[in-house]
Amino acid sequence: MKTIGMIVAVEIKAVLDRYGSQLTEKNIAGYRVLEYKTDKYNLIIAKCGAGEIAAAGCTQFLISEYKTDMIINFGVVGGLTPEMAKTKTCVVEKVVHYDFDTSAVDNWEVGRYAEYPDPYIPANKELLEKALAINPELVPVICASADKFIADPQLKINLNKQFGAHICEMEAAGIVLICNRNNVPCLLIKSVSDSIEGGAEEFRNTVNEAAALCLDIADKIIEDLDK
User: Distance (Å, rounded) from C-alpha 33 to C-alpha 108?
Assistant: First the structure.
């Protein structure tokens, strides 16, 4: 039986609405952990809070504490292009940690970690292909990730121009980097809650709808894993 870790930053309401009384709750090492069991898998859901450090720590916690076979993350993001219309659902192909910068000492590109040949941290290709086969409407994207909520349209345009990114958020780099270092596959499903011209207010108005849409797709992928 597979053990699947699910990381939730702030969209916990969608999880509670979906699984409700079927969840059992624990508090371990400062994390709120919700467990959902079926005859095919154990789903361990942890709320990490916002930001790369919180997400990276939670990822390692799930891997070390529960020996997870895979990590899945769903959440809401900002769109960086006109095509990323509100509630457009996507799957992360690779992520750039755009505020990680060691260029002053090594002349490497902004966002590049030593184990990679460029600034892009790849998500698991096999899970990506599985997700696209299950739901062809998912859009593969490059995610720009850092500890910043981007509301300024010009900053969104700049991220797209510099990195070719389609979306931005605050946890993906920490999740994918730690999963890759542990050789644990991960899958990140995202839904755009605020468009290129949108900001904090648009995010607040659409966050629950967008999160629920992501969880619909994540749930279908989890159910199909053993087929």
Answer: 38
